[in-house]
Amino acid sequence: MDSRTQTPTVALIHAVLPAIAPMREAMAAQLPNARVLNLLDEGLLSEVERRGGLTAECVERLATQIGLAIEAGADGVLLTCTAYSNVVPEMQSRFAPLPVLAVDQVMVEAAVERASRIGVLATVPAGLEQQTHMLERAARERKKAITIIGSLHPEAMAALQRGDGETHDRILREAFPPLAAQVELVLLAQASMARAAAGLPDLGIPVLTSPQLVVERLAERLQAAAVH
């Protein structure tokens, strides 16, 4: 095992500042020996919103960030913005064999395996849209019928971006019970929402967050790449 295997370099590409802290915690817990590069490009999300969707220009902007990560020596890339999750397969093909993961990829797979009525609590409109597409695709691959119920609260993200985490968490606590009453399992769509998970009321249904699950998968991918 060489030094790069023992100390892999992982690039985390963020579109919002609040995503950095929960990902840092997940990395420290699951890949404590990794060298972490945090690449923040708030234009990734603002351009999706300005252009009215995930356009070719937005995709190329993401590709540029991945290219910068590779130049900086990344052994793996993890994209923390759910608005871009649907184009991660394209990035995986373009930058193979580099491991490129979407932050919600593992969470979505786990949700479809475990439930048929799935709630998605979200704070970013584009993220809710893309995660819905991912859930539907995962269900088709498994030939499983699912129902997705979304609960969108952009005011929570706005609060978090201005540094008001207390308001962010309160909005999610209040939104959770009516959503939970309709489903078997709830996803917290954005990585930045993981901070609120512990404060949600215990209503007897699973609540999945993305950071820990995806970092576990990334660790597996890095280990497999090292073996080969």
Describe the structure.
- With 228 residues, the chain is α/β, with parallel strands linked by helices.
- It has 2 domains: 3-103 and 212-227, Rossmann fold; 105-209, Rossmann fold, CATH 3.40.50.
- It is built from 10 helices and 8 strands.
- The chain has helices at residues 3-6, 20-30, 43-51, 56-71, 88-94, 105-114, 125-141, 154-161, 165-180, 210-227, and strands at 9-14, 35-40, 76-79, 100-102, 117-122, 147-152, 185-188, 207-208.
- The strands form 2 sheets. The chain has a 4-stranded parallel β-sheet with strand order 2-1-3-4, with helices on both faces. The protein has a 4-stranded parallel β-sheet with strand order 6-5-7-8, sandwiched between helices.
- The protein is globular, with a radius of gyration of 17 Å.
- The termini are close together.
Notable characteristics:
single chain, 228 residues, alpha/beta, Rossmann fold, 2 domains, four-stranded parallel β-sheet, 8 strands, globular
**Main β-sheet, spatial strand arrangement:** 2-1-3-4
Rg (C-alpha, Å): 17 Å
Q: Based on helices, strands and strand pairing, what is the structural class? A: alpha/beta
Distance between the termini: 11 Å
